[in-house]
Amino acid sequence: MIVDKPSRGPREGDVITIKSYKHDGSLHRTWRDTMVLKTSENAIIGLNDHTLVTEDNGRRWVTREPAILYFHKKYWFNIVAMIRDNGISYYCNLASPYTMDKEALKYIDYDLDVKVFPDGEKHLLDADEYATHSKKWHYPKEIDSILKDHVKILVDWINEEKGPFSQGYVDVWYSRYQYLMQQRLKDRR
């Protein structure tokens, strides 16, 4: 009997692609060259720094600042901590838990976003887009319920400065990224 070896997931220092999709399966956005900082059974932490992003309409742009990314296999959100001169801003996507294959880290974007400013102010974004797409693509009631529950979990994390929302978390992972980049430069010499 032949047993297939499980494919190795990404490891620290690997560079991956991230792809977000919409509920109907259409490609929404692609990020190239995200560096993996940590993987565990349920989570991946990565970093984008001047990363090429391609929109579904073909428009391309490059991220402006370093951003630490947090993806989880059980939570219906992902978190982007953008390291800016005036402090850390967060952009949180309400989205399916991620999956990973040989091509990319993938998830379904469910439109709703929570933005957190450096002063802690929070805004729920794109509720109108969520309502439009929910009707257009017939989001199941189960998904609507899950997303509402996970908005509450996300807001609790923000208020408690849990995980990615703590300064220590950002400092540790950004320092790790800088160390890995220095190692790459040494290896190239």
UniProtKB/TrEMBL annotation:
Residues annotated as binding Mg(2+) 2: 111, 113, 126, 129
Keyword check for Hydrolase: yes
Domain DUF402: 24-162
Cross-referenced SUPFAM superfamilies: FomD-like
Origin superkingdom: Bacteria
Names of required cofactors: Mg(2+)
Keywords carried by this UniProt record: Hydrolase, Magnesium, Metal-binding
Gene3D superfamilies recorded: FomD-like
One Pfam family per UniProt: DUF402
Catalytic residues (UniProt): 29
Residues that hold Mg(2+) 1 according to the record: 93, 109, 113
GO molecular function: magnesium ion binding; nucleoside diphosphate phosphatase activity; ribonucleoside triphosphate phosphatase activity
Catalytic reaction equation(s): a ribonucleoside 5'-diphosphate + H2O = a ribonucleoside 5'-phosphate + phosphate + H(+); a ribonucleoside 5'-triphosphate + H2O = a ribonucleoside 5'-diphosphate + phosphate + H(+)
Biological function: Has nucleoside phosphatase activity towards nucleoside triphosphates and nucleoside diphosphates.
Family: Belongs to the Ntdp family.
NCBIfam families: PRK13662.1
Protein name (record): Nucleoside triphosphate/diphosphate phosphatase
Species annotation: Fructobacillus ficulneus
